[in-house]
Amino acid sequence: MIVYAETSAVLRWLLGGSKDGAIRSCLGGAERVVTSRLTLAEVRRVLLRAVVTKTLGAAQAAQARAAFGVELPSWDIVEITEEVWLRAEQRFPVEPVRTLDALHLATALQIGDVVGGVRMLSVDHRVLDNWRELGMTEALRPGV
Asked: Which of 9, 32, 55, 83 has the fewest Cβ atoms within 10 angstroms?
């Protein structure tokens, strides 16, 4: 199974919370994990912002960054292409869609066009609602 790891799922895995075990299992069991370069920036910004605003301790943020750094070499990181930008500017089935979510959806769609069979790993209902409406498959069963 090829899994597109969207930022919300990556952060849930790194910071814990509901579904983190299922996310970890999904990532570990994937034949291939793919994500956007955008995910790297978002994850690192969230961790930095959380330390600065004191919603996360520096040690916990460092631990999350380290765990992320261990996994990244085995993931395929996809740059945002002109094609992705153009698709992100278009309408999605369930609007409104935030810009970064549109970029994730467009990236995953592009990957699916190239390799086929991409499953979305996300805990963001806006991303998942659109993914389902586009006729695509989720990496986690609904309700897991």
From this structure: 55
Contact by Cβ (8 Å): 98, 126 = yes
Of 88, 90, 91, nearest in space to 100 by CA? 88
Q: From CA 125, how far away is CA 140, in angstroms rounded?
A: 12
108: CB partners within 8 A, 6+ apart = 4, 6, 34, 118, 120, 131, 136
Q: Rounded to two decimals, what is the model's pTM?
A: 0.94
Beta carbons within 10 angstroms of residue 98's beta carbon: 11
CB atoms within 10 A of CB 44: 14
Q: Which amino acid is at 42?
A: E
Q: At what angle do helices 37-52 and 99-115 cross, to 10 degrees?
A: 150
- Both tokens of residue 72? 């990244």
**Cα–Cα distances in angstroms (integers) from residue 143 to residues 27, 98, 100, 129, in the given order:** 17, 23, 24, 13
- The one-letter code for the residue type at 13 is W
The series of mean pLDDT values per 10 residues for the chain, 144 residues long, is: 97 88 94 98 98 98 97 98 98 98 98 94 96 93 55
